[in-house]
Amino acid sequence: MFTLEIDGTPVAIIRSNEERARELLEVEGFQDDLRTMKSDGRPLWSGKAASLKLRPATEDEVETFEDSMDEEDFEDEDEPKAANDSKGSGDDEDEEDDVDILFLVDIDDEDEA
């Protein structure tokens, strides 16, 4: 897992391999999201590439991520499960490409002005 820092502030944890995490930082749509998403009324990112830093996540950050995923799994238990037949579907390869993101800062609700 890797932590995205913006201007020295840990903003998000990315669960993926390092190559995929670095690629994510180059995706224009993700960059647009970082510029438009706000925390405390301010954009997460100014758009200056030098202010983005990717580093290995700390143990505390990994624990925060795992706790969040455990809570999400608990919430999903109330929803009906779809049948899943993964035989021969190449899911193992897809898992290597999976990227999960947990924001460490509170993201402002878009409906609030």
Question: What do you see in this structure?
Answer:
By secondary structure, the chain is of the alpha+beta class. It has one domain (2-72, 98-108). The protein is 38% helix and 22% strand. The protein is built from 4 helices and 6 strands. It has helices at residues 18-26, 28-36, 59-76, 91-97; strands at 2-6, 9-15, 38-39, 42-43, 52-56, 100-103. Strands 5-1-2-6 form a 4-stranded antiparallel β-sheet, with helices on both faces. The longest helix has 18 residues, at 59-76. It starts with a strand and ends in a 10-residue tail after the last strand. Mean pLDDT is 83; it is low at 79-93. Residues 59-79, 91-100 have a biased composition (Acidic residues). Residues 80-90 have a biased composition (Basic and acidic residues). This is Glutamine amidotransferase. Residues 55-100 are annotated as: Disordered.
